[in-house]
Amino acid sequence: MALLCAAANASIVFNFDGDSLGASTTFTDTVDGLSATFSSSADPGGFVVYPTMFETLTGNVLGDPGPAFADNLALDVGFSENLSAIELDFATSDFITPSPFTVTAYENSALVGSTTSTGQFLSGFNFPEGEIAFAGAAFNQVVISSAATDFAVDNINVNPTPEPGTLTSIGAGLLLLVIGSVRRRKAARE
Fold it and tell me: Which of 17, 45, 73, 108 would staple 59 via disulfide (CB 3.0–4.6 Å)?
C-alpha cells in the first residue's frame, strides 16, 4: 500500500545537469517518461544552459540571456502530461533590491493560477536566490517570469497528477486494508 501512495505522489526533477553546456531554447528534456519543452519568445536562443554561479542552484542552470542576447524574457515550459504541483529554485539579476519572480500555470492555455515570490541575497553571492512553488488544479504549462532583466532556474520539481488507474489501485488497496482489519478484529473476538 505504501508503494501505491508513493507512486501516486512521486516527483520528477528537471535540473539541466544532463544537458550540454551552451544548449539553448527551444529544447525538450524527458525524465521518467515526462517531457518538458523549454522555450521563449526570443527563440532560437532566448535561454541557455550554463554552469552555476549560485549557492542554491547547483550543477547546470537554465538562464537568460542566451545566444539571442534578449532581456526581459519569460520562460515557457510545456509538459507532456498534467501536473498537480511545481517547485523550483531561481536567481534574479538584481544588485540592490530583489525583483518579484512569478510562476503562472495554465491548462491548455486556460489560466489555472499563479504565485509570486522574491529571492534573498545570500552571504558571499551577488544575486538574490529563492524558491517558489505552485499547487492547485491540474496544469500542463507554466510561464516563468520576473521583473528583473534576467533570471536563472534550476531543480524544477514537478508532481504529475495521478492517472485514474492509480487512484483506483490506491482505493482498492485501502479497501483491502479495511477488510483485513475488520476480519482480524472479528477473529480476535471469537
Answer: 17
Nine cell digits for residue 91: 536567481
**More confident call, 63 vs 136:** 63
Alpha helices for the chain (secondary structure H): 2-8, 164-189
- Cα 76 to Cα 53, 79, 136, 174: the distances in Å are 23, 10, 19, 39
* Residue-wise pLDDT tens digits, 162-175: 765 444 444 444 44
Nearest one of 144, 165, 3, 163 to 83, comparing CA atoms: 163
- The model carries a pTM of 0.81
> CA 14 to CA 133: how far, in whole Å?
14
Cα distance between the two ends of the chain: 28
The fold of the 10-161 domain, in CATH, is Jelly Rolls (2.60.120)
Joined grid coordinates for residue 71: 532581456
- Asked whether 145 and 102 are in contact (CB, 8 A), the reply is yes
The helix (run of H) or strand (run of E) holding residue 87 is strand 75-92
